[in-house]
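Appendix B.2, paired examples.
Example (i):
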Amino acid sequence: MLLNEDNGYFHQVPGWDLNCAVAGAVLAELSLLSRIDTDMDSLFLVDSTETGDPALDPILKEIASEPTQRNTQFWIERLAPRAEEVIDLTLDRLVALKILEFHDGEFWTLAQTGWQTEVYDHSKDGTAGQFIKTRISRAIFMNEIPDPRDIIVISLVNTCDVFRFIFQLDETSEERIQLICKMDLIGRSIARAVQDNIASPLRRHSALTKKMPVVPLRKLLLNPHLHYGNVPALFADLAREYGPVFKIRPPFAKPMTFLASPRANHWVNKRGRMHLRSRNYFAPFESTYGASGVLSALDGADHFQLRKSMAQAYSRGRLEGQLDQLYRHARTQMARWTVGDILARNTFRQLVNAQTSPLAVSVDSQDIIDDLIAHKERVLNVHILKLLPKFMLNTPGMKRRAKTVDTLMKRVQGVHTPAQRAGCPRDLVDDLFSLHASDPQLVPESNLPFALSAHLLTSMYIGDAIGFALYNMVTRPVLYDRIRREADALFANGDPDIEDLTPSAVDVTQRFFMECLRMYPIVPASIRDVTNSCIVEDYELPVGARLYNVQAATHYMPDLFPNPFSFDIDRYLPPRNEHHGPGYVPFGLGTHRCLGSRWLELQMSINLLMLAHYFTLEVHPANYKLRISPFPSMKPSKKLKFRIAEQRRELHV
């Protein structure tokens, strides 16, 4: 009932109120299962037998272990802090039952498949959404006698004060809701306990007592990880000394507030959408491209709608359907290399763009991709990181590079006509153009150049990730040999189909890349503005604060990843499974988590396998030690180079 399908979130209910309502729902469910009973004065145990529900049984056990009989309000206050765990377990269960669908970025929608329930002692078919809304609306608007469960649901939703967002209510229907809320003793008891609860202000007050620490600049500047370029390791060190929330006061600039902890990651992932906004800091960046309201800058319902509409374009499935083209484009680019050639950072960016450009926008952009990347990096350094003055965007070279965005747009428009697209597989441009035609306010024409160039610019991120991976593969002969064996097995009888790329067939390669992304996350932090004051790790984040969440700092926290500076691909095997939980975040968090992460994982793995299959590479010079260029994203230093020592097989284009 609380799910708002327009934006994929749940209707906003004050945290303590929602926690009390969830605790009340648990008690109501236990009562309906005849495990407890309640009246206006007390709550008492009837049957301590477990229900089999992991959200209910720990609470039932706690009630059974309490020696003193308490009232309902006592238990709601006591159980409210556990509500988030109950919510997570319940959401997982609803997804497993195909009542809800979960989408990357912490979005939910009601499942569209047929659903059946036995709530009324006989089956009713239809979607979950239709059934739930119908049964509640009949009780409210058609004066049907409600089921006891519906009375409790109505009481709790009414306590959360969100019915006005779900239905159009008039005076009569509001009176009906109040009447229903009085029909059941359990519902009345729980609702009264929630409404009368006075703990919320006290809890909020106590949470404001911690003063946010300030990191001295010398601590920052003298940290060895800063000079090496390892941003997540730097902030893991600072968090270890100063705690999960701290400030840095750079000279001649506003104070900067940083988050760096697994609990902060969890909060951003689950609650960030209620308190944080990306639009303010991102607006100057998108305006450079003449755009406004692109996916990275949107929040709320518009962000959810656009993300949902574009999900297929960025999906792994889209790439899986074009694997033959991916192999062909990659092989064509590799065929230009010969033994003795020196491969640099831009080589791998060009390699990835040779695949991404024809697959995503159906044009060749190899001649302009370097300029597109150079322009974007300059805009990021000027408008997002504030490392360069604004006039650095107006140099003759930068003005020339800025024009390549228009060049790309003209090429794309030239080939995306109905006759030329007939019989072609759908690409990103087709999706964007269709969305623009159907909703020109959501995707205005002015946003198209940015949206098209942005996808090509992922070649920078994927290419840099491949550079990190190659260094770690080449300098670790045992792993190099294991990856080569996987590659040779996969390509032994031609190019592998998606059915051949099973988890077991690419096990070493996949875990190897996971460890590379842990140690060298390309985008280790995110920037947001606080729009609603909030409490994180017992520190207040005031309205208007600019927040830097260094989510990948957790990658270097020993309690999450033992020996974090050790390259260890066995971290991701059971029982260790160190990637489970909010500590492993190579693709970001929450609603702005990378939409194309699954595409990227597949493309990176295939490129690494092909490089291992066709070539023997060595670091050049042999004694080079990896250094990181951290801004505007983490990438290998330009000094990292590889030499082709051997071409193991012919490249048949």
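Example (ii):
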Amino acid sequence: MKRAYYSKTITEFLEDSKSSILGELTLHHEFALEDLQRNSWLAQIDILKEQFSPLKDAYILFEYSIPRMGKRVDVVLILKGIVFVLEFKAGEKKHQSYAIDQVIDYALDLKNFHEQSHARKIVPVLVATEAPSVSNNLLPHQDLVFTPLKANKNNLYENIYWASSKLEDKEIDPINWVKSIYKPTPTIIEAAQALYKGHRVEKISRSDADAINLSKTSNTIFSIIEESKKKNQKSICFVTGVPGAGKTLAGLNIANQRHQIDTGEHAVFLSGNGPLVEVLQEALARDEVETAKNNGKELTKKAALSKTKAFIQNIHHFRDEALRINEAPVERVVVFDEAQRAWNLAQTSSFMRRKKGFSNFSMSEPEFLISVMDRHQDWAVIICLIGGGQEINTGEAGLFEWFSALQRKYKNWNIYVSNELSDEEYTRGQNIFSEIEETYLHIQDELHLSVSMRSYRSEKVSKLIKAILDCDILEVKNLYLQISNIYPILLTRSIQGARNWLRSKARGNERTGVITSSGAYRLKPIGIHVKAGIDPKNWFLNGKEDIRSSYFLEDVATEFDIQGLELDWTCVAWDANFRFTDGRWEYMDFRGSQWQRIKDETRKQYLKNSYRVLLTRARQGMVILIPEGDQEDNTRMPEFYNTTFQYLQNIGLQILE
């Protein structure tokens, strides 16, 4: 895939015929060329040839790839050391806000992920061809991305020349710029959309030496699948990684690449995370409908959803179908996301008795899911995506239950793990390998993803959060000093202050939201009501104009809503259910009219993990809201909150002014 479909000096562009430029664009276009796209290119070429005829010593690129989004910028112009990012809206009579956000997103993408653009001035330009002329201001942000210029087909050159004369900088070598290392870190929604459209994982994910490449993990699993097919054997792979390392992306890529029903290898992505499944299914369907519309075709939302539901399924629907029949499923390859959250024996048996009428059901969820795939007479492959310290709900078994089932009943399955799987964060201190025969245990280091990609501003954020929760003060201070300038974490006692900060930070379509613990019942007096609930589809996907969306900063998501997903900027609202006292954490549950101490060690771990989830959801930065409490309310006494605030302040977190 070429980074740009067409890239030449401005002189060469002006000399090239319209037909030759169109031919080169068409040659490199990856998908079927629609009349709408062809006509759009022709209009852009005409406008640019007319407007840029006075330009010299510039470099122009058409359809420059933005891998993180699986999209392309209409035009990039490199002039006088400045990167201009042009988005055309042919026939548009207004500079619409959605289009302004779009071109800002492209500019930010280059700034954050394109190495040669990190220190460069980047000017987004929205060209609404039929819009009236407007006055522009050149307003820089701290990162040297400027507020967008608004132009039309008649004053584009005028605006470009004006901006370049004011911002002229050290020259850019356009060839080196085009060849620059690109380190995209897509959100899981962006990644799913790009993969579903046919983009390959290596084009939308980081491939630098600092991270174990996602494509390496995928290729390792592809090799295991091929070997299992060839030798007619059954295999299970455990993919581990730090929060935000790309486990879900790896799983989606595997399911997408191996989604081959005709060759007898139907793969499916399964998750027990209801909000994640719902959001991804909806996002893919909306995107497919929009793509069809842009190409002049009709596609109903219902039809689009039926396709996405075959690719991404709720694991409980898969389970229920397997309960209904005794035959092997059509799927030969299944990816279980967040497999550590599968239910233990007690939880599964209770559910089956109460909800399904199976009075004698005696298998944990991991054991049952393995048994379903074991129905195949020849080969099958299970890929378990495991997040350390991610169990957050009653009955979630962790890793031990998978290995217990394999040891007891499925000794002939080949087991593939990385060396990292022995870490206590995954095993809870249990020896999960004790009875596995060495013949069936295979160590593959590529099955661990050690670098967080969610927090692209800093790969140390997940380590910092772990140190905070482990009360490792020296490690916290050391890590925070390393990231504080590139990944802001602020403290506040004011919900309105937190909202104002989020709004001041977000640009383009960068997503903001307020998140909190599901046990944060006493935040209700400050307007955070966890019992109200959210519709994940609306909260994560709807736009700034929708009061149900995360942008409005009114409805709050809990750890159950947001696990596996992420936002750009978050406010983490901290209640008294998890409070720091005398050098350690206290674990509390609100019952009736008072806080009660949690004594059960498993429930303590769930609560700690819930805060781990909340504190690792922000890609760019967060503000932690700890209310001041109320001396007149014995459920919100100031001392319930002050010690936690003081702990976080003492380790170096700055207070929001």
